[in-house]
């Protein structure tokens, strides 16, 4: 299993989110996992220029000038993604918002379809509900399956944190073992249907992406997700068979 964590705090390894995520990943489940944790202070991500090149061509001209290309590769290769931001003025940090802006065109193509995601935040007292709600919506729009959340304040006890860990591990195991246990949101259904209706009528990068990935063959997000998960499972089995030979 490949795990990628992205922490939107400039405090990096000194942040509370880093401590929480590292503690969670000490679980026996991840002892053989390939884990990479990226922090805001270690990345150079330029501000989105609003040129819309990504929507029109699938290419961001800034990707060759900063670390975003590497971040995208890590996300695409991951089996589990952990996205975390501290609460700043009842929203995500500026770094996290900028990162999301640079990924926003993926919300039209569901580039991260079927990726399991944990969302995480920390705050001294309030505002966590806004950050968690926003991160859940964004990751869902990218095609991800949000399996749980980590929410820590100044008064969160170790027992409460461990209970959150346990809920996530149960949800992840159930989702991996049985596709029927995957939680698909109404938002994902509505977004898929709206995009399908609009993109099937127009030419361009997004239409071609949907066509090349057989997305127009499916009328609901769930149907397309099941197709992609079945395809990924088959590819995984074929790869293991090749290695055994």
From TrEMBL:
The keyword Iron is annotated on this UniProt entry: no
Keyword Glycoprotein in annotation: no
Gene3D superfamilies tied to this protein: 3.40.50.360
Gene Ontology molecular functions: oxidoreductase activity
Keywords: Flavoprotein, FMN
InterPro entries noted in UniProt: Flavoprotein-like_sf, FMN_Rdtase-like_dom, ISF_SsuE-like
Protein's name according to its UniProt entry: Uncharacterized protein
Protein species of origin: Clostridium felsineum
